[in-house]
Write a sequence for this structure.
């Protein structure tokens, strides 16, 4: 006959063993959660979902709403461009309904080692932008990013398109033209 | 003619007598004695040599007598676990233990022994127990300073002498007196089934009834408690290697436990890596979803895809380790069942403390409470 103290010992040992066993067994059986997440990459800001064929130029945001009398910024983006050292960008807009407030160098084109030059000429419906680095035949930038920021001011309500003129072109550090496969369009909705 | 008939009849009668003389002794002869030898307990002596010595001793017993020497495998089918002792069988040096194992093995004589090595002297001390008489009938000691080889020779010689003398010195005792059952014993009979009835009917006055192991009709819990193989398998299912450890297979236990521990460790590592990669993927996906900058979105997307690849890698390994762990876990249970003892012997009988029974003599139910006084 097992004495009560022996039984208690047996029970305690059994409990400890079971606890240890649960620890090991659970790590083998229940620990893994085999969920493999699937993500949908459908952010409109993702160039891959814009269907542009790089290298390309596009407006971003490609569609904005501005209250009449106020101003907002539209960026001119380069998509996967290689060795960009200078550019002429012609932007057609609806003159009289929109006006150019400011033109700034975009983050993509800013360079800490050299100066960048920006010349913007508003020809009443066509904004000519000349932007380039000091011609040293070496400085250039590569990738995707904002070349210039254009601040439009809304004068009249309506929806107005922004387009690039056909003579828009990019140049590399050797002043050779960079072929652009795509150029996007933008829309500005002016509301009261 | 008459004389011819008489002579044929005489020949027939003579043939019958010859036949009777030849075969009747075989028909009426008692079955040969059975002898069981438990593994000699090594004392400062290599256990493998001890087992080998026991085997050689068994062999010499077999060669020198007509008795049936029970094989090593048969003697090892019971687990003998004394409280406070580690080894099976070898620790069985007491009369009670020897008698109990002897009965369970259904043997007439049981031999236990200790083989020691001290001061360059190897010695073997044996005890011989008679199941019929219920006493220790002999003790034999051999010692040698000539190493293990000479001890083996001495053990063989001792085995030969013992084999020859055992049946001659101790003939079968007279059949014990058949005793009627008392009312209290009938209760026991009802509770414990036919094995107890047989034991009670065949006992002599001086022999106590000792029943261990599974008793038919006692119940599933009792069966589980006394079935060593099932218990070992259950232990191993709760913790890998526990059943092997219970069955005194320390290396197997260590192997299974270590393997399972390593596998679970690796599974844990990959699970953690998976979790980290998953969290990173989620974080970058949230950044991707929230960004308004076309120049940042591709970078976030790339990060998300990188982390998804990483988590898939860790998840695959996790699955592999999990499957391996499960297979080894099942193997461990099967192995524990395989190596587990068939039944469990305890120095203290593992009977239930409280029994409810029916006494057919008094025709009243009875509540029996039993407790140990030792």
């Amino acid at each position: 006959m097992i004495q009560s103290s022996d039984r208690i010992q047996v029970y305690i040992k059994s409990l400890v063993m079971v606890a240890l066993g649960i620890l090991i067994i659970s790590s083998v059986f229940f620990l893994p959660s085999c969920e493999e997440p699937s993500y949908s990459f459908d952010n409109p800001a993702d160039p891959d979902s814009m269907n542009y064929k790089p290298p390309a130029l596009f407006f971003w945001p490609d569609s904005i709403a501005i209250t009449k009398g106020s101003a907002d910024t539209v960026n001119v983006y380069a998509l996967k461009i290689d060795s960009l050292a200078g550019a002429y960008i012609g932007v057609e807009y609806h003159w009289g309904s929109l006006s150019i407030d400011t033109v700034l160098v975009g983050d993509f084109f800013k360079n800490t080692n050299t100066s960048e030059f920006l010349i913007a000429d508003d020809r009443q419906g066509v904004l000519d932008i000349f932007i380039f680095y000091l011609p040293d035949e070496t400085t250039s930038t590569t990738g995707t990013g904002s070349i210039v920021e254009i601040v439009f001011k809304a004068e009249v309500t309506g929806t107005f398109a922004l387009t690039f003129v056909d003579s828009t072109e990019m140049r590399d550090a050797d002043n050779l033209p960079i072929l652009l496969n795509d150029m996007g369009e933008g829309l500005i909705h002016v509301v009261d | 003619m008459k004389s011819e008939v008489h002579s044929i009849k005489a020949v027939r009668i003579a043939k019958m007598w010859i036949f009777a003389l030849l075969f009747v002794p075989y028909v009426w002869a008692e079955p040969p004695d059975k002898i069981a030898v438990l593994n000699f307990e090594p004392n400062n002596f290599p256990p493998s040599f001890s087992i080998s010595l026991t085997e050689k001793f068994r062999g010499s017993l077999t060669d020198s007598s007509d008795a049936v020497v029970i094989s090593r495998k048969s003697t090892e089918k019971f687990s003998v676990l004394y409280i406070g002792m580690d080894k099976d069988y070898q620790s069985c040096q007491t009369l009670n233990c020897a008698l109990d194992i002897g009965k369970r093995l259904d043997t007439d004589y049981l031999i236990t022994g200790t083989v020691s090595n001290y001061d360059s002297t190897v010695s073997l001390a044996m005890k011989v127990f008679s199941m019929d008489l219920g006493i220790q009938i002999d003790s034999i000691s051999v010692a040698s300073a000539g190493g293990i080889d000479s001890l083996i020779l001495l053990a063989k010689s001792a085995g030969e002498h013992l084999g020859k003398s055992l049946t001659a010195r101790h003939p079968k005792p007279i059949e014990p007196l058949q005793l009627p059952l008392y009312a209290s014993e009938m209760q026991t009979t009802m509770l414990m089934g036919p094995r107890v009835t047989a034991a009670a009917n065949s006992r002599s006055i001086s022999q106590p009834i000792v029943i261990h192991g599974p008793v038919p009709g006692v119940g599933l819990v009792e069966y589980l408690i006394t079935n060593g193989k099932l218990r070992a398998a259950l232990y191993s299912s709760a913790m890998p290697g526990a059943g092997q450890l219970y069955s005194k297979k320390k290396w197997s236990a260590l192997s299974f436990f270590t393997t399972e521990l390593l596998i679970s460790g690796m599974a844990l590592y990959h699970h953690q890596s998976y979790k980290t990669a998953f969290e990173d993927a989620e974080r970058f996906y949230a950044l991707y979803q929230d960004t308004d900058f076309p120049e940042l979105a591709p970078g976030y997307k790339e990060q998300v895809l990188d982390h998804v690849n990483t988590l898939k890698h860790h998840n695959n390994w996790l699955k592999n380790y999990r499957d391996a762990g499960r297979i080894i876990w099942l193997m461990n249970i099967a192995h524990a069942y395989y190596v587990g003892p068939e039944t469990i012997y305890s120095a203290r009988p593992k009977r239930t403390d409280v029994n409810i029974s029916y006494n057919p003599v008094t025709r009243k139910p009875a509540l029996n409470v039993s407790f140990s006084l030792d």
